[in-house]
Amino acid sequence: MNPAYSGIVEKLTERILKLIPSHPEILTLRSAWGLFEVPGFDCKDLDPSMAQAEFALTEAKRRRRLGAPGEFEMAPVPCETCGAPTLMDGTKRCDGCWEVERRLKAYLIRGGERAREFIGTCWTKVGSAKTKKART
Ligand SMILES: [Zn+2]
After folding, report:
1. 111 alpha carbon to ligand 1 midpoint, in Å?
2. Predicted structure pTM score
3. 72 alpha carbon to ligand 1 midpoint, in Å?
4. CA 58 → CA 13, 71, 129, distances in Å?
5. CB neighbours (10 Å) of residue 56?
6. pLDDT confidence tier of residue 134, bands split at 50, 70 and 90
7. Is the dihedral of CA 8, 10, 11, 16 positive or negative?
8. What is the distance between the alpha carbons of residues 91 and 89, in angstroms, rounded to a whole number?
9. pLDDT digits (tens, 9 = 90+) for 90-113
10. Which residue of 38, 47, 53, 108 shows the fewest CB atoms closer than 10 Å?
11. DSSP code of 24?
């Protein structure tokens, strides 16, 4: 690999590695295209080719596996609520579901009847949207 080419791959690899702790789903990506859906991922300044991006993703996954013990030994588990990969193997909740479930409990307790009505309305809307989708 020429230095400019490998320089881009290295920078991109480091960038991906930094994102893995907050976005463990990166470890399950099959293609570098998925990186563009990861919040906070930006490679415009590096302007990598798709081959470089694939190389960097593979390299980041490899280093993550080989990395320092402890943190790097963690393997993602599926969130029990939505199935998204998460490193939180204790609660088995991704960040989003954990946050919502935690807050929702407090909301329902504090908000009383009004809160239950609101959630009921939301649920009705989601339910009917799902039914419509299934019919088409
Ligand atoms: Zn979840």
Report:
1. 24
2. 0.49
3. 21
4. 8, 19, 39
5. 25
6. low
7. positive
8. 6
9. 788 888 999 899 899 899 999 999
10. 47
11. G
